[in-house]
Amino acid sequence: MTTETRADAPARSTTGTAGDGLDAARVSWSAAGRLILDGVDVAAPPGAVTGLLGPNGSGKSTLLRVLAGVQAPTDDGAAGSARAGARVDFAGADLLSLPRRRRARTLAFVEQEASTDLPVTVLDAVLLGRIPHRSLLAGDSADDRAAARGTLDVVGAAHLADREVTTLSGGERQRVHMARALAQEPALILLDEPTNHLDIAAQLDALRVLRSLAGRGVTVLAALHDLQLAAQHCDHVVLLSDGRVVAAGDVRDVLVPDVLDPVYGVRTEVLTHPRTGRPVLTFSPR
């Protein structure tokens, strides 16, 4: 994967290629004349958890929405232009041109603040993830309901099945959104801050689910705010700053002071976890 470079933050090149995973190039997006994404290239290999990192306002959420097809890319920030030169490939398919139904059978997107005011039960909300797998006029089958209950169990929310979504806490809703995405049986899952609103035990459980998906060959790309969680649970990371890729690759190559300090405006010290051998990060003001 190619990386964008900045004069104040040395780029790190990725190791390996995306293979049949996600491979996006030249993704730009702008709003009200402001360039939010500036020709971003990003790859996420199959069977791995890739973390999308960056400070607030760096473009993480916007990039995920473009990759998911929620927002169309624009040409070098020129609002209103068509497809531009952007390319978003997954397993040999162009995600930007796939019909919506087929795309929904390929990828699932868990947004950070997805919510509903409709009085639907948790089980019914999760069953929405089964829609791409049945005919347009068909109702929920026994298999659909079993699949939905199974994904609720996976995310630790089986006890919420009969509750109305509007009565849930933010953390409970986050688990339900993940269950709905898993019910789609995606080969690619995109997540915007999947640990948002969760306590530490629930955060670890959510990341365990993502690691389990990756172990089954699913391509996982998750925007994460917590660099420590990324260091402990991601295989690869992509670091954004001001709408550009600063560095991408193995966590041990990217989560280092030379890269992080200019982007976050901190002083970083990297230790090694005595059991896992993974990096442990500590921060202090510059």
Please provide a written account of the structure.
- The protein has 286 residues and is α/β, with parallel strands linked by helices.
- The protein has 2 domains: 1-91 and 188-286, P-loop containing nucleotide triphosphate hydrolases (Rossmann fold, 3-Layer(aba) Sandwich), CATH 3.40.50; 116-186, no CATH class.
- It is built from 9 helices and 12 strands.
- The chain has helices at 60-67, 100-106, 122-127, 142-154, 170-183, 200-215, 227-233, 251-254, 257-264; strands at residues 22-31, 34-44, 49-53, 87-90, 93-94, 107-110, 188-192, 219-223, 236-241, 244-250, 266-272, 279-285.
- Strands 6-7-8-3-9-10 form a 6-stranded mixed sheet, sandwiched between helices. The protein has a 4-stranded antiparallel sheet with strand order 2-1-4-5, covered by helices on one side.
- Helix 6 (200-215) links the parallel strand 7 and strand 8.
- Mean pLDDT is 88; it is low at 1-19 and 77-83.
